[in-house]
Write a structure and sequence with these properties.
mainly alpha; about 400 residues; single chain
Length: about 400
């Protein structure tokens, strides 16, 4: 049942990606958000209804997950965030860091709620879905009456074809044109392909530790839980360092330090220290660099125009969907829980490191230089904003 719902959700997420950016460009971000959240609300209503109509619960459950996938709300959130960043002057890295911290905090709250429900052994979910439905309706009202339009009027575009097939063809051709004309996007897509493919090992990390070290799933979760909490508090470290030492220096240090840790961990993967497997310890070692994602988002907002931001977000999501699906399958096939040799045991990590090495080649080919130049521009914007504030404060004192 869960597999069927997740499959329909994934298909819905993929299909809606081909329409969301075009709809958001033509009708505005607010309209896209309202439609997307309406599908989320309908999904929650279907879950709630399933608790009353038990014979139809299976069908309603699968349909509800499909509606979640078709909402495209994650893509809409990314588009809106890029609109806000494009309209800002100064420290966009700090803005993305605050956004990511809030997202991580909400994720932790949701995780704690799930743990509470499991610990309490709740068997009747009617009251739970009732509360979620009321919250969803409240968010819908806020979207309709409070949420502002973040898209500038001059950036609105007309919908080309009126047919579904024509709209898909228009979207795909637009993606191809943007990738061809924007070197940063072109190289980012290639670099992300290797990064996403390398990240596929995360899907087999838990069973790999279970097979090699003999820990059960709960023990591994308890080992990694503090790292998840630390990630929330470490999120501001990189943005703060950028404001103090400059984006270029910090970005370059964080990039190469992250890659160096990957290389360092290979010989020690099957070892442990103080009862902790080294893969877990290396996850902690990477925790201070979690804020690097905020820098990457800031860089992309600098190098991708507001007119192309929605399409770029859709390209990123499609890339994650395609490459992530293939990567998960690839790593699940290469993982051998009964391997006895060192190479056999760490083969998933060797593959992951090799793919990340290919990403380094893209960095050296020119993607890295584009990022460093954008870092200089961001630092210059922050300095300019600081000078303007200082000048205004000086004028006030003079008055």
């Amino acid at each position: 049942l869960s597999g069927g719902g997740e499959s329909l959700e994934s298909v819905g997420r993929f299909l809606i990606t081909l329409f969301v950016s075009g709809f958001a460009d033509a009708r505005g971000r607010k309209a896209a958000a309202v439609v997307g959240w309406a599908l989320i609300t309908a999904s929650v209503a279907a879950f709630f209804l399933a608790s009353f109509v038990r014979p139809w619960a299976r069908v309603l459950f699968i349909v509800a997950q499909g509606l979640q996938g078709m909402s495209g709300i994650g893509l809409i959130l990314d588009i809106v965030t890029r609109d806000i960043a494009a309209s800002m002057a100064g420290d966009t890295t700090g803005f993305f860091a605050r956004k990511n911290m809030f997202g991580m905090l909400m994720g932790m709250v949701f995780f704690c709620m799930v743990l509470y429900i499991q610990h309490s052994q709740i068997t009747e979910f009617r009251s739970v879905w009732e509360v979620i439905l009321l919250a969803s309706i409240l968010v819908m009202l806020l979207l309709v009456f409070v949420f502002p339009e973040t898209q500038a009027d001059e950036n609105k575009k007309k919908i080309g074809s009126s047919s579904v097939l024509g709209m898909v063809q228009d979207e795909v051709s637009t993606y191809a044109r943007i990738i061809k004309n924007n070197r940063f996007i072109k190289l980012s897509v290639v670099e992300a392909m290797f990064g996403i493919a390398a990240g596929g090992f995360a899907g087999i990390l838990t069973p790999w530790i279970m097979a090699v070290f003999g820990f059960n799933q709960f023990q591994i979760m308890m080992m990694l839980l503090p790292q998840v909490i630390l990630s929330l508090f470490c999120q501001p470290i990189i943005p703060f360092a950028c404001s103090k030492y400059g984006h270029r220096s910090v970005f370059r240090f964080a990039y190469w330090a992250d890659r160096a840790i990957d290389v360092m961990c290979l010989p020690l993967l099957t070892s442990s220290f103080g009862g902790f497997p080294f893969p877990v310890l290396f996850a902690y070692l990477k925790t201070p660099f979690v804020g690097a994602g905020s820098v990457m988002e800031s860089i992309s907002s600098k190098l991708v125009s507001p007119q192309e931001s929605a399409k770029y977000s859709a390209i990123v999501q499609l890339n994650m969907f395609f490459v992530g699906s293939m990567s998960s399958l690839m790593f699940s096939r290469i993982f051998n829980s009964e391997a006895t040799t060192l190479v056999g045991k760490i083969s998933p990590f060797i593959l992951s490191s090799s793919l990340r090495l290919c990403g380094v080649l893209v960095y050296l080919y020119g993607w890295g230089q584009l990022n460093l130049e954008a870092c200089d521009a961001i630092s210059a914007d922050i300095g300019k904003e600081a000078e303007e504030k200082e000048k205004l404060e000086g004028d006030k004192k003079t008055d």
